Automatic annotation (TrEMBL):
Biological process according to GO: galactose metabolic process
Keyword check for Transferase: yes
GO MF annotation: an example: ATP binding
Listed PROSITE patterns: GHMP_KINASES_ATP
Annotated ranges, domain GHMP kinase N-terminal: 4-67
Domain GHMP kinase C-terminal: 229-300
Family under the similarity heading: Belongs to the GHMP kinase family. GalK subfamily.
Name of the protein in its database record: Galactokinase 2
Stored Pfam families: GHMP_kinases_C (PF08544), GHMP_kinases_N (PF00288)
């Protein structure tokens, strides 16, 4: 195969440029080999293949790359993978703004540390509730096995976990395992030397964020008059939780979020893994021109922000279709 690769997604910006490349490579390879797989199968294979670089990523980026449809957002759910249409409000647009802080997930351990903190929190919660904790990997599994709501899981956290950080030794005591078992059987290679795990904060973020996703969908379905305001409030709560509980923001993202809200965004939050990359803001359509001009001036024209073309730094967007193969007739 001889391949020429081209793209317009800014790299390391939290806009899934690496997943886009993997999905493109997977689809092209299938096409060249004359093979057929469903979009769901292809998304799952692409998600699995990305973990070979050592990043313990999920499957959301790959799923939307294949399952996206023009004109509608999607609620992505796993086990089994499925996508449900979510109709977005007509009077507002989503604006992407790049903080210009690059985040290379494969070259840093922040991302994997969060995955491991969530894995340890899931195991401690499972043990607290007398579940088979050694088989549990994800917080979602604890909720599913208990058959309770996200709101109930938030109450269980208050009883089962303490806000003070856990040391590896305390985690071992809670689970009744040795330090060697923790390092070799649970932690990933680049998280074995971590000295503190914030299990309470990470679990609280994940369950509350999952609840916000479902609230967002519900508001879109019910379409009240103040819909854009309500959706914006959820986005703002999300950023606060990312910043304070999951600690995956950075000063530039926080500054950019504040600027976006100041100039008319009803809601603004980081998008992607965090620690850099982009914000996404919900902006009333009639405020869009002034919003773009003001944010451009306040963030990008102060200091040496971005050498990238302006259009890559700040742009309005709407849901597009998923990956396609164009064949010459």
């Amino acid at each position: 195969m001889n391949c020429l690769v081209d793209g317009t997604i800014p790299p390391s910006s939290g806009l899934s440029s690496s997943s886009a490349l993997v999905c493109c490579a997977g689809l092209v390879t299938l096409t060249v080999l004359g093979m057929n797989l469903s979009k769901v199968e292809l998304a799952e294979i692409c998600a699995k293949s990305e973990r070979y670089i050592g990043t313990e990523g999920g499957g959301m980026d790959q799923s939307i790359s294949f399952l996206a449809e023009e004109g509608t957002a999607k609620l992505i759910e796993f086990s089994p993978l499925r996508a449900t249409d979510v109709k977005l409000p007509s009077g507002a647009v989503f604006v992407i703004a790049n903080s210009c802080v690059e985040m290379n997930k494969a070259a840093t351990s922040h991302f994997n540390i969060r995955v491991m903190e969530c894995r340890l929190a899931a195991k401690l919660l499972a043990k607290y509730k007398s579940l088979q904790w050694d088989k549990v990997l994800r917080l979602e599994e604890v909720q599913t096995n208990l058959g309770v709501s996200l709101e109930e899981m938030l109450l269980i956290i208050e009883d089962a976990l303490h806000p003070e950080p856990y040391s590896p030794e305390e985690v071992c005591r809670c689970l009744g395992i040795s330090l060697q078992e923790l390092q070799t059987k649970i932690l990933s290679p680049n998280t074995q030397d971590v000295l503190v795990f914030k299990l309470y904060q990470r679990a609280k973020h994940v369950y509350s964020e999952a609840a916000r996703v479902l609230q967002f969908k519900k508001i879109c379905e019910e379409a009240p008059d103040n819909m854009v305001q309500l959706l914006g409030e959820l986005m703002n709560q999300s950023h606060e939780s990312c910043r304070d509980m999951y600690e995956c923001s950075c000063p530039e993202l926080d500054q950019l979020v504040d600027i976006c809200r100041t100039f008319g965004a009803q809601g603004s939050r980081l998008t992607g893994a965090g620690w850099g990359g982009c914000t996404v803001s919900l902006v009333p359509a009639d405020k869009l021109p002034s919003f773009l001009a003001n944010v451009q001036e306040a963030y990008y024209q102060s200091g040496d922000r971005c050498l990238a073309p302006e259009k890559q730094s700040l742009f309005a967007t709407k849901p597009g279709g998923g990956a396609l193969v164009f064949l010459e007739a």
